[in-house]
């Protein structure tokens, strides 16, 4: 710690007290860590409370993007917290899964993945330009994460959102179908038809909703897309 000295009516630190700033930073870090541990304990107590109920349904703990514990978004944004919850759930004998875009998959080390039994991987498009229009992000990190999961044999379900006029192009579907079929760890491809159930959220947040006039896919379109995935060798539903 540095030495204080008086200057006029006040007191200030000399340059040597910079070490004190480090102590303050460590104290803040310790407080944050303590808060996170307490938060973990609260979440895990809730998991313990419903453990028997979860086991009735097969013993699954799925961490969805809508789970408020993860900020209503991507689970890998809070990687350390997610890892601790998954680890605690595994200690309870539960089956664990997350839904993710895979864009941040490079952040997940082997230790994190070891606590996952299943990855639900959202791949909105096989075409980089379409993927960027849909998500505002590059496709490559998601594909690399998918290939990494295949390399380590981590079970995965690919989830494809079918949006008429945006992701329904036959070439786009064929590209994703061939990619998914090439990954031996992919157990299912789930086709998720676009709907308007979440439209109110955009208005509530004051954001422009670009799909206000987009209609859900017809049964015929859904059937065509499912058959494309199945023709490529995927189990699709």
For this structure, the CATH topology is TIM Barrel
Number of DSSP-assigned strands: 7
Shape: globular
Helical region count? 9
Radius of gyration: 23 Å
CATH class annotation: Alpha Beta
The topology string of helices and strands comes to EEHHEHEHEHHEHEHH
| Total domain units | 1
Question: Largest sheet at a glance?
Answer: 5 strands, parallel
Low-confidence region ranges: 1-21, 24-37, 64-72
CATH superfamily membership = Aldolase class I
CATH architecture: Alpha-Beta Barrel
Structure write-up:
The chain has 237 residues and is an alpha/beta fold. The protein has a single domain, classed as Alpha-Beta Barrel (TIM Barrel). 45% of the residues lie in helices and 16% in strands. It has helices at residues 18-49, 51-56, 79-91, 110-114, 128-135, 140-151, 170-181, 199-204, 219-231, and strands at residues 4-7, 10-13, 60-63, 95-100, 118-122, 156-162, 186-193. The protein has a five-stranded parallel sheet. A two-stranded antiparallel sheet has the order 1-2. Mean pLDDT is 80; it is low at 1-21, 24-37 and 64-72.
Blueprint (SSEs and pairs):
Blueprint: E1 4-7, E2 10-13, H1 18-49, H2 51-56, E3 60-63, H3 79-91, E4 95-100, H4 110-114, E5 118-122, H5 128-135, H6 140-151, E6 156-162, H7 170-181, E7 186-193, H8 199-204, H9 219-231
Helix pairs in contact: 1-3, 7-9
Q: Which terms would index this structure?
A:
two-stranded antiparallel sheet, TIM Barrel, globular, 237 residues, disordered N terminus, single chain, five-stranded parallel β-sheet, alpha/beta
């Amino acid at each position: 710690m540095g030495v204080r000295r008086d200057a006029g009516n006040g007191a200030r630190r000399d340059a040597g007290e910079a070490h004190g700033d480090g102590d303050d930073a460590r104290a803040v870090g310790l407080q944050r860590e303590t808060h996170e541990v307490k938060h973990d304990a609260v979440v895990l107590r809730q998991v313990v409370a419903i453990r028997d109920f979860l086991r009735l349904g097969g013993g699954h703990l799925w961490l969805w993007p809508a789970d408020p514990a993860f900020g209503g978004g991507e689970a890998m944004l809070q990687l350390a917290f997610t890892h601790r919850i998954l680890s605690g759930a595994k200690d309870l004998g539960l089956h664990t899964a997350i839904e993710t875009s895979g864009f941040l998959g490079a952040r997940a080390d082997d230790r994190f993945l070891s606590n996952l039994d299943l990855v639900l991987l959202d791949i909105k498009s096989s075409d980089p330009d379409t993927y960027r229009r849909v998500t505002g992000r590059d496709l490559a990190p998601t594909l690399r994460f998918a290939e990494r999961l295949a390399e380590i044999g981590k079970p995965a379900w690919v989830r494809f959102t079918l949006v008429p006029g945006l992701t329904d192009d036959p070439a786009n579907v064929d590209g994703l179908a061939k990619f998914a079929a090439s990954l031996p760890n992919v157990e299912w491809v789930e086709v998720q038809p676009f709907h308007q159930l979440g439209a109110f959220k955009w208005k509530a947040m004051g954001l422009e909703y670009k799909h206000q006039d987009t209609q859900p896919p017809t049964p015929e379109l859904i059937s065509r897309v499912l058959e494309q995935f199945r023709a490529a060798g995927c189990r699709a539903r």
